[in-house]
TrEMBL record:
<dbReference type="InterPro" id="IPR013815">
    <property type="entry name" value="ATP_grasp_subdomain_1"/>
</dbReference>
<dbReference type="InterPro" id="IPR000121">
    <property type="entry name" value="PEP_util_C"/>
</dbReference>
<feature type="binding site">
    <location>
        <position position="757"/>
    </location>
    <ligand>
        <name>Mg(2+)</name>
    </ligand>
</feature>
<dbReference type="InterPro" id="IPR002192">
    <property type="entry name" value="PPDK_AMP/ATP-bd"/>
</dbReference>
<feature type="binding site">
    <location>
        <position position="781"/>
    </location>
    <ligand>
        <name>Mg(2+)</name>
    </ligand>
</feature>
<dbReference type="GO" id="GO:0050242">
    <property type="term" value="F:pyruvate, phosphate dikinase activity"/>
</dbReference>
<keyword id="KW-0670">Pyruvate</keyword>
<feature type="domain" description="Pyruvate phosphate dikinase AMP/ATP-binding">
    <location>
        <begin position="20"/>
        <end position="57"/>
    </location>
</feature>
<keyword id="KW-0808">Transferase</keyword>
<feature type="domain" description="Pyruvate phosphate dikinase AMP/ATP-binding">
    <location>
        <begin position="309"/>
        <end position="370"/>
    </location>
</feature>
<dbReference type="Pfam" id="PF02896">
    <property type="entry name" value="PEP-utilizers_C"/>
</dbReference>
<feature type="binding site">
    <location>
        <position position="781"/>
    </location>
    <ligand>
        <name>substrate</name>
    </ligand>
</feature>
<comment type="function">
    <text>Catalyzes the reversible phosphorylation of pyruvate and phosphate.</text>
</comment>
<keyword id="KW-0067">ATP-binding</keyword>
<feature type="domain" description="Pyruvate phosphate dikinase AMP/ATP-binding">
    <location>
        <begin position="59"/>
        <end position="293"/>
    </location>
</feature>
<keyword id="KW-0460">Magnesium</keyword>
<protein>
    <recommendedName>
        <fullName>Pyruvate, phosphate dikinase</fullName>
        <ecNumber>2.7.9.1</ecNumber>
    </recommendedName>
</protein>
């Protein structure tokens, strides 16, 4: 098969389509050559050879040799020089290049083709002996390091010593003879270290370099990088061998990098920097400060440095033309390396430019407007997950900060506020207009109100996905968890970290995107949703089929959800409404009541506040669908735990301590998540259904008047596994509806559906579907029960599972395939008996782009996610159709 692909002189064997074989670098070079850009000629050895190299036990196959020799000849003919020619030697670079960009991870050898004879030839042909020996010493050092494995520090030491001895400060002060002397010393080091001379045979050099680059695919750095970026080990690297051009041939030579657009703002202007009379490595070494590329940047920087545009106007004009040609060909922002040798521009590399999310948006919209890409491509060009970053305040990257500790980033965004250590304190202070950060060792259901009141949450225990996995949805607030280096003493209201002590009321800043906890206030950037955001989301909405709803329990959440474009509420978890201080008492009375009558009495106290909750939600959603879920958690979650609290609650409720304790003991369960919750609770305590249904209907009637009867609540029954459970609860709801209709002398419109969050419900979906007006997949519970894996305890070992490759992704974040299959079965069976069944998903997976894509494939009606993920889901839903 074909292993070697040449390029140059307006032609190429390969093209940009051959990235798998030629690697990104080789494929783009081939394409640049094809479209007539000035590319130094060269050839690429395909990644197939990399596989062969390892199969042979790190040996190159013999068949490769004639292919490489032929390619070298061809390249030499284009370049007008010959490899090893003592009068006019061809010098080459040997570079890695894999399918995925792995910047700086693998090896490179530059200036290859020099030995004691050819260096003289180079000196004669360029009439620049200093340049020739400077190049030779650069080569020896790099080759010795990369191919021969000699520590490059030894060489740096020699050069430093030499300069000290001669009183030189900077490299440019060294003359030709100095570099020749350095070369002699460098060769001596190699001979000493290896007990044989530095290789003078140029072919030996070349094969050594090729093998080293293939070998660097398996160096520790590259392996680690692949792990991190999910790049398969068997892709291998290609090796590109390319004619050297020199940016260090005087003041009409230069080397630089350029982005075709500004990668941080997206502005349509060249953005980059360069060094006059330098080789690429000098930029990396950071010894000299690069100069601005354009006149505009030069003026803006005000450092008086002359721009590339001003110094080398012709090369600049050519660069500009090349950039335009590249964007036209690749239809994306490009990140380019170039060199100017004695006035002539050469393009050395191009690849798709990394860009900020904000820039990505602007570039996508601009390019579509410019006609460079279609609107579909613009929508597809964005990474849906990254949109999240645009929606939250972020730390100003230039701000000064004192970092106290780092925890796990659990919910993105940054916030500053006064430190508080108790949830009720947070509620209290918020009511007085304070901005607070709630710091807890860990959070419990009683903290929910406090968490809503705080602008940010910090815990010292817990894992990354814990706040979502627990019965605590993401609340769109920055959240840092598991900050083990922070010590919290809630009694004394003190937080200690990094040897500092902070008290209640002291200002802290947390960054839920990085996990950083900082002392004091840190300057922030407010999210700035540009017109480009609106434009692009508008295009996305035009393409998508899936509806997008939000999980929202409070008016704030509902407003936020609408602002982000939610088309309804897919899940209102009513239990959160009962944790509020004024209500938990009535809730506890209900739980402690001995009989149904006692429970009714207590529930009556909750009715008006519950009704008010729904009125607010219906008003905000203004006729959009609202799915309200009946009470789900086991009752003991509402009871106090801990001796002190139990005593205090007993006191407040006027019941005896023993009575309260007995009730707590009766209600306690071994496996609460698999116990009396959801439908099981509602079957046993129909009074709860009645109260909640009544609150919903009365709220709908009241809001409906203002909204001209546009409110049709969707009432959802959680944790159903048997159709009869749903039927019993449904009948209660219907009876309540009839009662309310009679009292109010009006009709109420409503739907009753069920969550599908147990494997049994998925399999029995045909049956259950006969009774349900809609399904909503609760993928949190469905994942938990499919795996038999408690979402509250999985954090302990899931990371070990990830490390060992047992389960590569947290199934509570990325939908598991078996869970997906159960969903697919449920969709098929449900719609078989109930053809127009409305089906949604409301687990935390709803904000995950891959899950959204899957939901499109299995034809769900909608997905529902936390308000801040709504734009992510809108975009992902559009991408899923394209
Ligand atoms: C679910 O189980 O996916 C769900 C949405 O409900 P909860 O997280 O409240 O159990
Ligand atoms: Mg659930």
């Amino acid at each position: 098969s074909k292993w070697v692909f040449t390029f140059g002189d307006g032609r190429a064997d390969g093209s940009v389509e051959d990235k798998d074989l030629l690697g990104g670098k080789g494929a783009y070079l081939a394409e640049m050559s094809r479209i007539g850009l000035p590319v130094p000629p060269g050839f690429t050895i395909s990644s197939e050879v990399c596989a062969v190299y390892y199969e042979l036990g790190r040996k190159l196959p013999d068949e490769l040799k004639p292919m490489v020799d032929a390619a070298l000849d061809a390249v030499g003919q284009i370049a007008g020089a010959r490899f090893g020619d003592v009068d006019d030697p061809l010098l080459v670079s040997v570079r890695s290049g894999s399918r995925a960009s792995m910047p700086g991870m693998m090896d490179t050898v530059l200036n290859l083709g020099l030995n004691d004879q050819t260096v003289e030839g180079l000196a004669r042909r360029t009439a620049d002996r200093r340049f020739a020996y400077d190049t030779y010493r650069r080569f020896i050092q790099m080759y010795a390091d990369v191919v021969l494995g000699i520590d490059h520090g030894l060489f740096e030491e020699i050069l430093e010593n030499y300069k000290n001895l001669k009183g030189f400060e900077l490299d440019p002060e060294l003359a030709a003879d100095d570099w020749a002397e350095i070369v002699t010393r460098y060769k001596a080091v190699v001979e000493r270290e290896l007990e044989r001379p530095f290789p003078q045979d140029l072919h030996e050099q070349l094969w050594g370099a090729i093998a080293a680059v293939f070998g660097s695919w398996q160096n520790a750095r590259a392996i680690a990088y692949r792990r991190l970026h999910d790049i398969p080990d068997d892709w291998g690297t290609a090796v590109t061998i390319q004619t050297m051009v020199f940016g260090n041939r005087g003041n009409n030579s230069a080397t630089g990098v350029v982005f075709t657009r500004n990668p941080s703002t997206g502005a349509n202007e060249l953005y980059g920097e360069f060094l006059l009379n330098a080789q690429g490595e000098d930029v990396v070494a950071g010894l000299r400060t690069p100069q601005p590329l354009t006149e505009a940047d030069s003026g803006a920087s005000g450092n008086g440095k002359q721009s590339f545009e001003a110094l080398l106007p012709e090369a600049f004009a050519e660069l500009k033309r090349s950039c335009a040609a590249l964007e036209k060909r690749f239809r994306d922002i490009q990140d380019i390396e170039f060199t100017v040798q004695e006035g002539k521009l050469f393009m050395l590399q191009t690849r798709a430019g990394k860009r900020s999310t904000q820039a990505a948006l602007k570039i996508a919209v601009d390019m579509a407007d410019e006609g460079l890409i279609s609107r579909e491509e613009a929508v597809l060009s964005l990474n849906a997950n990254q949109l999240d970053q645009l929606l939250h305040p972020t730390l100003d990257p230039k701000a000064e900060m004192t970092v106290l500790a780092k925890g796990l980033p659990a919910s993105p965004g940054a916030a500053s506020g006064e430190l508080v250590f108790a949830a009720d304190e947070a509620v209290h202070l918020k009511a007085q207009g304070h901005t607070v950060i709630l710091a807890r060792v860990e959070t419990s259901p009683e903290d929910v109100q406090g968490m809503h009141a705080a602008v940010g949450i910090l815990t010292t225990r817990g894992g990354m996905t814990e706040p979502r996995r627990r019965r605590r949805p993401r609340m769109g607030r920055p959240c840092v968890v598991g900050a083990a280096a922070v010590h919290i003493d809630p009694e004394r209201e003190i937080l200690e970290a990094a040897g500092m002590q902070l008290r209640k009321g002291d200002i802290v800043t947390i960054d839920g995107s990085t996990g950083k906890i900082m002392k004091g206030r840190v300057t922030m950037r407010e999210p700035d949703l540009s017109p480009d955001f609106t434009t692009l989301m508008g295009w996305a909405d035009g393409f998508r089929r899936l509806r997008i709803r939000a999980n929202a329990d409070t008016p704030d959440d509902a407003r936020q959800a609408r602002a982000f474009g939610a088309e309804g509420i897919g899940l209102c978890r009513t239990e959160h409404m009962f944790f509020e201080e004024s209500r938990i008492l009535a809730m506890r009375e209900m739980i402690l009541a001995e009989n149904s009558e006692g429970r009714r009495k207590a529930l009556a106290k909750l009715l008006s506040s519950q009704r008010q909750d729904f009125i607010e939600l219906f008003e905000i959603m203004a006729g959009l669908p609202v799915t309200i879920r009946l009470l789900d958690p086991p009752l003991h979650e509402f009871l106090p735990h801990g001796e002190d609290t139990i005593a205090a609650v007993a006191d407040a409720m006027g019941v005896s301590l023993t009575h309260l304790k007995r009730r707590i003991a009766v209600l306690s369960e071994f496996n609460p998540m698999l116990g009396q919750r959801g439908a099981r609770l509602l079957v046993s305590y129909p009074e709860i259904v009645e109260m909640q249904a009544r609150a919903i209907f009365e709220a709908a009637i009241e809001t409906g008047k203002a909204l001209h009867d546009r409110v049709t609540p969707e009432i959802m029954v959680p944790l159903v596994s048997v159709k009869a459970e749903l039927d019993i609860v449904k009948e209660r709801i219907a009876a309540t509806a009839r009662a309310v209709e009679k009292e109010r002398e009006t009709s109420v419109a409503f739907q009753v559906g069920t969550m599908v969050e147990l494997p049994r419900a998925c399999l029995m979906a045909g049956e259950i579907g006969r009774s349900a007006e809609f399904f909503s997949f609760g993928t949190n519970d469905l994942t938990q029960t499919t795996f038999g894996l408690s979402r509250d305890d999985a954090g302990r070992f899931l990371s070990e599972y990830a490390d060992k490759g047992i389960i590569p992704h947290d199934p509570f974040v990325t939908l598991d395939e078996a869970v997906g299959e159960l969903m697919q079965i449920a969709v098929e069976r449900g719609r078989a008996t109930h053809p127009d069944l409305k089906i949604g998903l409301c687990g935390e997976h709803g904000g995950d782009p891959d899950t959204v894509n899957f939901c499109e494939k299995i034809a769900l009606t909608y997905v529902s996610c936390s308000p801040y993920r709504v734009p992510v889901a809108r975009l992902a839903a559009a991408q899923a159709t394209l």
